[in-house]
Amino acid sequence: MDFQQSLESINYFAVIVAALSAFVIGGIWYSALFAKSWMKENGFSDEDLKNSNMAKIFGGAFILSLIISFVLALFLGRERTASIGATAGLMVGLFWVATAMGITYLFERKSLKLYLINAGYHVVTFTLMGLILGAWK
Length: 137
Known about the structure:
137 residues; mainly alpha; 7 helices
């Protein structure tokens, strides 16, 4: 299969939904589940977060999530299913993203707790993205 066929096989609506799922998971992950721990491990205060450029942060995060979702759809190819998508997303999140983050966290001497919070978010997000992309051909 060539690149053109790969592009034609992508469900672009699913790419957008998968990208949006990162915001849903992030909203739950970084507020309801781990907000206090994440803020403490980063040394953030409520005031720090209030004084952030949220349009830049959320806009940039959405663009990056779209890129991730699009490339994951390409990676999954034409013969994708929900099971294949979720499994591939889990593997990418756990064995590529989380391990690469782990190397960075080791050299930056960041805490294991912060690593587990952030890497866990990406593992869950990539798994859900893969599931969405695989289910919606």
